[in-house]
Amino acid sequence: MAKFIIGTSKGLKGNVCAGGCKNAILPIIAATLLTEEECIIHSVPPLSDVIALCSMLCDMGVSIQFDEKKESIQIKAQNITKLKTDYEKAGKMRASFLIMGALLARCGEAIIPLPGGCPIGSRPVDLHLKGFSALGAKSQQSHGFIHITSKKLQGDKIYLDFPSVGATENIMIAATLAKGVTTIVNAAAEPEIIDLAEFLKKMGANITGEGTNTITITGVKKLFGAEHTVMPDRIEAGTFMIAAAITKGDVVVEHVREKDLKPILAKLSEANVKTQKLDENVLRVYTTTKLQPISLKTMPFPGFPTDMQAPFMSLLSVIKGTSMITETVFENRFLHAGELQRMGAKINIESRSAIIEGVDKLTGTQVKATDLRGGAGLILSALAAEGKTEISDIYHIERGYYEIEKKLTKLGADIQKVE
Ligand code: UD1
């Protein structure tokens, strides 16, 4: 099993480029099932989650050509030959559930395994199913699979109890081919929703309100092939920003959109981390003075993103003073804290809050990536720690960061991937 071996890496310096956004790519790939025509998607790094989703589509008879060097993917779902996804593949990745909306809209039927529990929480899919039911679909659960069927979907008003990103995407995808108007109230407003809506509109969908809490979709008869370049990954960019701050470096992060990063930039600024806009899509991140402890609370966009919670915990664990993180989006997203404690961090978890007493230094040891973003946080802590850190279970990290070791090495980090 591959591991990262990381040594103390002070003052990272240079330029690094964020890749295409994983959380936009996955729903966009699912949405290509809505048309029999070819879709071309650019800025798609060969992340393991992307490969896994493509493999599921291939099993369904979809033709996919992935030019990994050019990070460009051609997908043609001319014939869909299978409406059931395999548990082995789909059960591992929650985003596989996004196939449901597209299959339902195009074929009137889908059989998808329940994504089940995952380390960061129970992650139910009730909001997805409630939305589909409002559109006229009938679902039943049997042997761990959801079998959903529908005649022509019929638009309706759907109120989400929580602005779930996945449920908003799944319902939006399904509603594009429904009869009449669908309104999603209390919809998620994440930038990835806007990117998906832009792609769907290129396919011929009629959508308004994306990026706000009310999205309106007027169903169309047919959707067509489209070409799209995926938005930059705001979480990968944020991770490099923390890498600059935690190593007291001076890093230029390219391929970023400032508007997507506002909640992250606000918290960096509160902590005294300096950022400077060098160009439209280029931000410099550096430190000049002592960093300050802060409090933050994860929330749906435009609140602070839960996916940046673990990287921030790593930074706050080495800032003198008391910081506090409150996680409101997922019920169990502090698994990485235990690993950080093994590196010498002083973190006290009380229910959904983590109280962090900044220490002078962390020390390298053997740790385990507990989940994708928690694993990224461990890399950041390892850069700042004294001595060598060995991170195992890095397959979690590779779900969402493509060749992170190469990108960090270019900035001067001491990081190696060993098999
Ligand atoms: C997406 C992102 C993930 C991010 C999360 C929150 C992808 C592939 N993943 O995940 O990186 O951390 O948004 O920004 O885009 N919930 C329900 N019922 C449902 C659906 C969700 O109770 O039917 C709850 C979840 O358990 C969780 C909260 O809603 O507590 C947020 O989940 P959701 O926004 O749906 O996250 P994902 O779409 O799974």
Strand order of the largest sheet: 21-22-1-23
SSE-based structural type = alpha+beta
The total of helices stands at: 14
Segments where pLDDT lies below 50 for 5+ residues? Answer: none
Instruction: Give the DSSP E fraction (strand runs of 2 or more residues).
Output: 25-35%
Mean pLDDT, all residues: 96
* Biggest pleated sheet: 4 strands, mixed
List all distinct small molecules, including ions and cofactors, that are bound in this structure: uridine-diphosphate-N-acetylglucosamine
Radius of gyration: 21 Å
Give the total of beta strands. 23
**Any idea what the shape is?**
globular
- Give the end-to-end Cα distance, rounded to a whole number of Å: 6 Å
- Percent helix, as a range, is 25-40%
Q: Short summary of the structure?
A:
The protein is an alpha+beta fold. The chain contains 14 helices and 23 strands. It has a four-stranded mixed β-sheet.
Which helices and strands, and how do they pair?
Elements: E1 3-7, E2 13-17, H1 22-31, E3 38-42, H2 48-59, E4 63-67, E5 72-76, H3 87-90, H4 99-107, E6 109-113, H5 126-134, E7 138-142, E8 145-149, E9 157-159, H6 165-175, E10 181-185, H7 191-202, E11 206-208, E12 214-218, E13 227-229, H8 234-246, E14 250-254, H9 258-270, E15 274-279, E16 282-286, E17 295-297, H10 309-316, E18 322-326, H11 335-342, E19 346-350, E20 353-357, E21 366-368, H12 372-384, E22 389-392, H13 395-398, H14 404-410, E23 414-418
Helix pairs in contact: 1-2, 1-7, 4-6, 5-6, 6-7, 8-10, 8-12, 10-12, 11-12
Uridine-diphosphate-N-acetylglucosamine binds next to helix 1, helix 5 and helix 6.
